[in-house]
Design brief:
InterPro entries: CoiA_C. By secondary structure, the chain is of the alpha+beta class. It has seven helices and eight strands. Helix 5 packs across helix 6. The mean pLDDT is 89.
């Protein structure tokens, strides 16, 4: 654990499991302590860092005792309060300092955009971001530029339609125990986020209507 957050490798993430009560979870063994550690309610923070709850299960416990402790988990999710504005500032700084030669940033500049002026709804770190390799700002920008930006207020679209674009812009992490389309949960989370921000509304199951545009902040010259 570093600064209150956990670090999981891509190899570890490949063994993720999912449960209605535990959410995404991993089981790790500590031979020096002779215990298992269960990480559950795993959520992505940024980069290789994650939020999670955890409990240690001694090898002295019987399987029944371990099961009893696990079933004693009360909450179905981990509440995390996030400062979206601060995260966005850190994101802009990170790309400006370390990613100036990246293909994404070059494409962004060539298209006339500056990362700091992108709509605030782009670059949002969501709990299931770890399901894909593609950084949030990159797939969310492409989804906006090639799909959402082209829609007018009042236009409608289906989840199936936008999912076709989403699938083109992300590279999912291969999971051993989870289905191939598990990463589509990330799109669902993003649509829910956009609904909370008043960008769109789900007016019937899996169909959405645009309520307002996601605005790029043009540079002003005084």
């Amino acid at each position: 654990m570093k600064q209150g957050k956990y670090v999981f490798s891509t190899f570890q993430l490949a063994f993720l499991l999912k449960d209605k009560q535990l959410g995404y979870f991993l089981l790790s063994f500590h031979p020096e302590e002779k215990c298992f550690e269960l990480f559950y309610h795993i959520q992505h923070y940024a980069g290789k860092y994650f939020f999670a709850s955890s409990m240690k299960l001694s090898t002295n416990y019987s399987l029944e005792a371990m099961q009893e402790k696990i079933t004693g988990v009360r909450f179905k999710s981990l509440f995390v309060k996030r400062n979206r504005k601060l995260e966005r500032e850190h994101l802009s700084y990170f790309y400006a300092k370390y990613k100036t030669k990246s293909v994404f940033l070059q494409q962004l500049y060539q298209a006339g955009y500056a990362i700091i002026n992108l709509p605030p709804e782009i670059g949002v770190q969501l709990p299931s971001q770890f399901l894909v390799h593609t950084p949030a700002v990159e797939w969310q920008f492409k989804l906006w530029e090639n799909f959402l930006k082209l829609l007018e207020t009042g236009d409608t679209f289906s989840k199936e339609h936008i999912a076709q674009y989403f699938q083109k812009y992300v590279m999912s992490i291969k999971m051993i125990f989870l289905p191939l389309n598990e990463c589509h949960l990330l799109l669902t989370e993003y649509l829910l986020f956009l609904e909370k921000e008043g960008v769109l509304v789900e007016y019937i199951l899996d169909r959405y209507k645009i309520k307002r545009q996601m605005m790029y902040k043009e540079k002003s010259y005084n």
